[in-house]
UniProtKB/TrEMBL annotation:
Keywords: Coiled coil, Membrane, Transmembrane, Transmembrane helix. GO terms for cellular component: efflux pump complex. This is RND transporter. Residues 387-457 form the YknX-like beta-barrel domain. One of its GO terms (molecular function) is efflux transmembrane transporter activity. It comes from Faecalibacterium prausnitzii. Residues 1-20 are annotated as: Disordered.
Length: 554
């Protein structure tokens, strides 16, 4: 009764407090009703919140309890170990050549089939070249004409001896200006003197060229030997109505005969009707072939010269320009001729390489246009493949290294290849750079272009090497050994090891997927220990040993 009153008195004295109490009472009543209605999901939520609070209030230095590690103890063992790179690639022929037509025309012959082996230079196709042959003949004629024109133009610079003989006179001097057709020199051939005499026609009809004659010089009556060089074929009526024929006799000149000397002759006892004077065997008056200046005189009067010898040289702007023009015309004709010959060669198509016909796209009778693909040849003397090698490993490869090759298409057979090229140009993708390596395979029995092949290149190997499992090498090059091992004396005091063990620094060598060669640090008499469960991707060989990125349990 007293509490109730006191409470009532308080409400009476503070109306606002009473109102607040009424509001609070209402909220509590509503909360109770909500809890009764949703208790099924509120209980699990409260558990989660409680667990979170416990975690937040947990001391920060409270660590998970350590789990004991189980070590495998063993001794280092001698074994063969090798480090190799591998890759896959597609086999390609040593050389591929697509034969194409360079001309238009109809195929006349195509005497080969797909699968045939052909030698370099073997005729594969012949194409109708009738039109090209006509054009080639025209080019030949044009070249001949251009050559003659050039020769004549060049020859206009020179005065040549038209016959062999002696220069009897020179009519110009060096530096003289001459015009075309002007007389410049005289050449005489007096090695033989010619004597033309009349003989009775009836007797002369029986004379013949080459027959001997006896020549008698007038005045001295000296007799010389001569030879008939010509007999006219028709009779002529001479003085006294006597039918005669003219007989020409050649007499070798020892140097004393001149054109002033007269003589008679007898042939087979028949004498000439009258005497006559000698004539030179040949005499030519030479003229300038073109206008110009005498730039050189190569002979003197009285000099003996051969036929076509250059006696006088001419020069001048007109001559130089004419020679240049003729030279250009000749060169143009030569080029046209060469082009036509090259074109003619394209109508006979030969194998560019020795190899096997893989495709034959055109047959006899087909009509071709320039650029048509005719056939495809593969040089199968060897095969090649290319693999991409990571930038971290490319330095271990060199030309000449042997490669083990296998192909899924040829079961139970291994091949040997050779590295022929290590490219200096890399291909980058996704932050990694790889370099193409070309491999040649000479013995290809069973292999074909297009097959996929596997290549394995041994970059380092060691036989009878002291090895430990890869898992035994930790923390950049340490091995865990028992304290009673001989090498325990070399333990690194800075390395904290499990009870009964110590860490020894080792020098590693060749490594494969399972074992690593130990070059120094431990011996075969040691007992090593390792956690077989510690092998993971967190260890890799950086060239000096295995590197730990901190994620291992050691």
């Amino acid at each position: 009764m007293i509490w109730k009153k006191k409470n009532a008195a308080m409400q009476g004295n503070d109306p606002s407090a009473a109102a607040a109490n009424d509001k609070t009472a209402g909220k509590l009543a509503g909360a109770k009703a909500f809890a009764r209605k949703n208790w099924k999901w509120l209980v699990p939520a409260a558990v989660v919140v409680l667990a979170g609070g416990v975690f937040l209030l947990k001391p920060a230095n409270d660590k998970q309890a350590n789990v004991d590690t189980s070590y495998v103890e063993t001794a280092p063992e001698e074994r063969d170990v090798s480090n190799s790179l591998s890759g896959t690639g597609t086999l390609n022929p040593a050389n591929t050549y697509t034969v194409k037509s360079l001309v238009d025309g109809k195929v006349l012959t195509a005497d080969f089939e797909e699968g045939d082996t052909v030698e370099e230079g073997t005729i594969l196709y012949t194409i109708d070249s009738s039109d090209a042959s006509t054009n080639l003949e025209k080019a030949e004629i044009a070249l001949q004409q251009a050559q003659r024109s050039y020769d004549k133009t060049v020859d206009r610079q020179y005065v040549r001896a038209e016959v062999a003989g002696t220069v009897s006179s020179l009519k110009v001097a060096k530096g003289d200006e001459v015009t075309s057709g002007q007389e410049v020199a005289v050449i005489r051939d007096n090695s033989k003197m010619m004597l033309s005499l009349l003989f009775p026609a009836a007797d002369a009809a029986n004379f013949s060229v080459g027959q001997s004659a006896q020549v008698v010089l007038d005045g001295t009556f000296e007799t010389l030997d001569g030879t008939i060089t010509a007999v006219t074929g028709t009779d002529e009526l001479s003085t006294g109505n006597l039918l005669t024929r003219t007989v020409t006799i050649a007499v070798r000149n020892a140097g004393g005969l001149t054109t002033a000397q007269a003589a008679t002759a007898s042939i087979n006892g028949v004498s000439s009707i009258a005497s006559a004077t000698f004539a030179y065997q040949a005499e030519r008056t030479l003229t300038a072939p073109s206008s110009g200046t005498v730039s050189a005189i190569n002979v003197q009067e009285g000099s003996a010269v051969e036929k076509d010898a250059i006696l006088i040289e001419l020069a001048g702007d007109d001559l130089t320009e004419s020679v240049q023009s003729a030279s250009e015309t000749l060169r143009s004709a030569e080029i046209s001729m060469q082009n036509m010959q090259d074109t003619m060669a394209n109508y006979t198509i030969t194998a560019p390489i020795s190899g096997t016909v893989i495709e034959k796209d055109v047959k006899q009778g087909d009509a071709l246009t320039s650029g048509t693909s005719l056939c495809v040849l593969y040089d199968l003397s060897y095969l090649e493949m290319s693999i991409n090698v990571d930038e971290l490993e490319i330095g271990s490869l060199s030309v000449g290294q042997k490669v083990q090759i296998t192909a899924d298409a040829v079961a139970d057979k291994n091949y040997v290849g050779t590295v022929t090229r290590v490219s200096m140009k890399g291909n980058s993708s996704g932050g990694t750079t790889t370099y193409p390596v070309t491999i040649r395979i000479d013995s290809i029995d069973g292999l074909r272009p297009g097959m996929n092949a596997n290549a394995e290149i041994v970059v380092a190997e060691s036989t009878s090497a002291l090895c430990v499992p890869n898992a035994a090498i930790v923390r950049g090059g340490y091995v865990l050994v028992t304290k009673d091992s001989p090498s325990a004396a070399n333990a690194d005091p800075e390395m904290e090891a499990p009870d009964g063990y110590v860490y020894v620094d080792v020098k590693t060598g060749v490594s494969d997927d399972d074992y690593t060669e130990i070059l120094d640090g431990i011996t075969a008499e040691d007992t090593i220990a390792y956690d077989p469960n510690s092998v993971s991707d967190s260890y890799y060989d950086d060239g000096s040993g295995f590197y730990d990125d901190g994620s291992s349990s050691f």
